Amino acid sequence: MSDFVSDFWGIWIIAIVVGGFVGLTVLLFTQSKTTVKPGEQVQTLGHVWDGDLEEYNNPLPLWWMLMFYITLAFGVVYLALYPGLGAFPGLRHWTSVGQYKEERAQAEAKYKPLYDQYLKQDLKAVAADPKAQEMGKRLFQTYCVQCHGSDARGAKGFPNLVNHDWLYGGAPETIKTTIMGGRHGQMPAFGAQFGEEKVKDVANYVLSLSNKKHDAERAARGSETFKAICFTCHGVDGKGNQALGAPNLTHPSGNWLYGGTEKTIIETITNGRNNQMPAWKDFLGEGKVHVLAAYVWSLSNNPQAAK
After folding, report:
1. pTM for this prediction
2. Strand locations in 68-194, DSSP E?
3. Which protein family is named in the record (predicted)?
4. How far is Cα 141 from Cα 156, in angstroms, rounded to an integer?
5. Does the annotation place 233 within a ligand binding site?
6. Which of 5, 14, 28, 100 is 20 to 30 A from 179, alpha carbon to alpha carbon?
7. Residue 230 marked ligand-binding
8. According to the annotation, is 148 in a ligand binding site?
9. Based on the domain organization, do 241 and 125 belong to the same domain?
10. Residues 270 and 282 in one domain
11. pLDDT score recorded for residue 1
């Protein structure tokens, strides 16, 4: 009801609901007055099927009438207690949001201590705990697989969490910071500034940084542009800057967030990129994030070796 722009719609709904209840009650009352005296011949409605199957005007059965009255009474009580009459919130002031928050509070009170017990432990120690690992895995499968995949290898635009190529760093505490506060990675668009040819030159130079097939002549020209503008984020050597989340362009495995083909790199330089990693601190709480961060760290490290 909060979405209504005027009181008219709330009043209109009240009129429809109340009118429906009144109309049904009157109909039920009038029909309950119809009776058949002993020995009285019941009239037919003139409808005949299959030659001798006729429709009689018999009164409604008493049990059916009682059920109808009970249903109407239930409806009146329900609308008095719960929302249903326009903007009237009901005597219990129930809302789906309120029930959701209440259920979450109950769940937090029950399960929060199970996660908070690990806050006193180092993340590497948590990662080596089999019980904590299982808890972290369930959290990952619930909240993270939508972007990073069930195998944590990511997809186009979503980082691979099982290798050692991290945009913001792969230390346990850094991973926890990422999950707690989220990240906002932005690559500015240079298409208008560079022009089509210069974009291709820079793209070929970027390809050369990871020893991929490229046009040497274009790469030589693109080197000048890269070292004049792109080095600000990616560094002169193209190895990136984890403080900014700027990718390492020299990675030997060719691990690219959006793909490492010439076409894709040209698209990235021309249009830029804008990525958002949501913050989970308020939703999950630090205890769950602590366990989840330990699990994510373990995906690319051996927890037992770190003990």
Report:
1. 0.74
2. 183-187
3. Belongs to the CcoP / FixP family.
4. 19
5. yes
6. 100
7. yes
8. yes
9. no
10. no
11. 47
